[in-house]
Write a structure and sequence with these properties.
The structure holds 2 protein chains of 2 kinds.
Chain A: E1 2-5, H1 9-12, E2 21-25, H2 30-53, H3 56-69, H4 76-90, H5 94-110, E3 111-115
Parallel strand pairs in A: 2-3
Antiparallel strand pairs in A: 1-3
Chain B: E1 29-33, H1 37-49, E2 53-57, H2 60-66, E3 74-77, H3 86-94, E4 103-107, H4 112-120, E5 125-128, H5 133-146, E6 156-159, E7 162-165, E8 170-173, E9 176-178, H6 182-193, E10 198-200, H7 201-209, H8 217-231, E11 239-244, E12 248-253
Parallel strand pairs in B: 1-2, 1-3, 3-4, 4-5
Antiparallel strand pairs in B: 6-7, 7-8, 8-9, 10-12, 11-12
The chains are: A alpha+beta, B alpha/beta.
C-alpha cells in the first residue's frame, strides 16, 4: 500500500493545524489520481490569478470540471467544492470565491491518499 | 490534442480485467469527446478495464473530422467543449451518414431543460457527472445493444447460405465447410455481424488485429479479398463486399443475385 500527499503543506501553511483526511483508493487508479491531484493544484493557482483579474469565466470552467471529475476519482468533497466554485463564479461573488478557494486548499493540504 | 488513444504504460490494471489484444464479441469501439484530460483518462481507464477500445478527442471538430474516416460503435459526448458545443456535435452527426451512431451524453450540466434538449436532439442517453463506473459501463453497453450495431452477439450466426459457429470457429457455406485462417475468420465474423454497415479501416484493423497491431492497408485489402472469394461475397451470389474510397468496407446483401457476366475467355 502506498500513500500520496495531495498538496505540499508548505504551500498553504495550514496543514499542521488540522488532522489529515485519509482516503483509500483502488491501486489501479494510482497514476491517474496522482495526475488528477497535480492538475487540480495547478487549477488552484489559475483560480487565484483569475480571481485577482476578475476573470469569473475561467473560475466557472475550473469549478465545473472539478464538479464533474472529483467524485469519480474518489473525492466527493472536491465535486462539492467545484459546484460551489461554479455557483460563486456565476454569481460573481468574490467573497464566496475566496472562501471556496481557501476551503479547497485546506482540503488538499489535509488529504492523504492510500492505494489498496 | 485532436485525436489520441489514451494509453499510459504506467497504469497497471488487475490481470483478469486486462482487455484482450484483439476485440471479443462484446468489445465496443468507443469515441470519447471530452476536454477535461483527467475526466477523459478516467473514462478511458474504466471502459478499457471493461474490455472496450477507446479513442479520445478533446474537441468536437476533431471528432467530426475523424468521422470522415472512422467508425465507432458508440460515442461518449461532453457538452461544454472549447470549440463547438456537444449539442452541435450531436446535431451534425444526426445529419450525417453516421446518423445512427449511439450517443451517450456525459456532462456536468444537470438542469432538466439541458437533459430534455439533448434527448430531443437525438442523444440516446444522458448522464450527469460525476458518473459512477458500473452505471456508465452498463448504460453505454445498453445503448450500443439497442442500436443497430449490437455487438453482443450469439455464438452462431445463420445468414443466407452461411453458418458461422464462433465457438468452434468454423464457417459453412451451403452446408460445406470453408477453410479460413484465424484472421480471415475474425474478419468474416465482423462483416457478417455488421451487414449494411460501413466500417472504417481503423475499426476493422482494431477489431480483428487488436488496438496496437501494425497492419498495412495492403494486408487488410488482401484479407478482405480472400474472404470475398472464399465466401462468395459477390453480386452473383447476392452479396457485395464493397470498398469505400479512403474509408473502409461495407458488406451488402443484395435484393437478388446479379448474374455474373462471363469474361471473353470463358465464352
Amino acid at each position: 500500500m502506498s500513500t500520496l500527499v495531495g498538496v505540499d503543506p508548505d504551500q498553504t501553511g495550514r496543514a499542521s493545524a488540522l488532522p489529515a483526511l485519509t482516503v483509500s483508493i483502488e491501486k489501479d487508479l494510482e497514476v491517474l489520481v496522482q495526475r488528477f491531484l497535480a492538475r487540480k493544484r495547478e487549477d488552484l493557482d489559475s483560480v487565484r490569478v483569475a480571481l485577482a483579474a476578475g476573470d469569473y469565466e475561467t473560475i466557472r470552467r475550473i469549478g465545473h470540471d472539478l464538479k464533474g471529475a472529483g467524485e469519480g476519482f474518489g473525492f466527493p468533497e472536491l465535486s462539492a467544492f467545484g459546484a460551489a466554485l461554479e455557483r460563486a463564479a456565476i454569481a460573481r461573488n468574490e467573497r464566496a470565491l475566496g472562501e471556496q478557494l481557501a476551503a479547497v486548499e485546506q482540503f488538499l493540504s489535509r488529504l492523504r491518499v492510500t492505494f489498496r | 490534442m485532436t485525436s489520441a488513444t489514451l494509453k499510459d504504460p504506467e497504469v497497471k490494471t488487475a490481470t483478469p480485467l486486462q482487455p484482450a489484444a484483439a476485440a471479443s464479441a462484446s468489445t465496443l469501439r468507443v469515441a470519447i469527446v471530452e476536454d477535461d484530460m483527467s475526466q477523459a483518462e478516467l473514462l478511458t481507464h474504466w471502459l478499457e478495464l471493461a474490455g472496450h477500445h477507446c479513442h479520445h478527442y478533446d474537441r468536437g471538430e476533431g471528432l467530426i473530422r475523424a468521422l470522415d474516416q472512422e467508425s465507432f460503435d458508440v460515442l461518449v459526448l461532453d457538452w461544454n467543449l472549447p470549440d463547438i458545443s456537444g449539442v452541435d456535435v450531436l446535431k451534425r452527426i444526426r445529419a450525417s451518414q453516421q446518423a445512427s451512431l449511439p450517443i451517450l451524453f456525459v456532462t456536468a450540466r444537470n438542469r432538466e431543460d439541458d437533459v430534455v434538449l439533448a434527448l430531443r436532439q437525438g442523444a440516446d442517453d444522458y448522464m450527469v457527472k460525476p458518473v459512477r463506473r458500473l452505471e456508465l459501463i452498463a448504460r453505454l453497453e445498453a445503448i450500443a445493444r439497442r442500436g443497430k450495431h449490437q455487438n453482443e452477439q450469439p455464438e452462431v450466426i445463420e445468414l443466407d447460405v452461411y453458418r458461422v459457429d464462433c465457438q468452434t470457429r468454423t464457417v459453412t457455406r451451403e452446408g460445406r465447410p470453408v477453410e479460413l485462417t484465424a484472421k480471415d475468420f475474425d474478419l468474416s465474423v465482423l462483416f457478417l455481424r455488421n451487414v449494411g454497415r460501413l466500417l472504417s479501416r481503423g475499426h476493422i484493423r482494431e477489431t480483428v488485429w487488436g488496438p496496437n497491431a501494425v497492419v498495412t492497408s495492403r494486408t487488410l485489402d488482401t484479407h478482405v479479398s480472400r474472404i470475398r472469394n472464399k465466401l462468395g461475397l459477390t453480386p452473383e451470389y447476392g452479396w457485395r463486399l464493397a470498398a469505400v474510397y479512403r474509408y473502409g468496407y461495407r458488406l451488402e446483401q443484395l435484393d437478388q443475385a446479379v448474374p455474373r457476366i462471363p469474361r471473353n475467355s470463358e465464352i
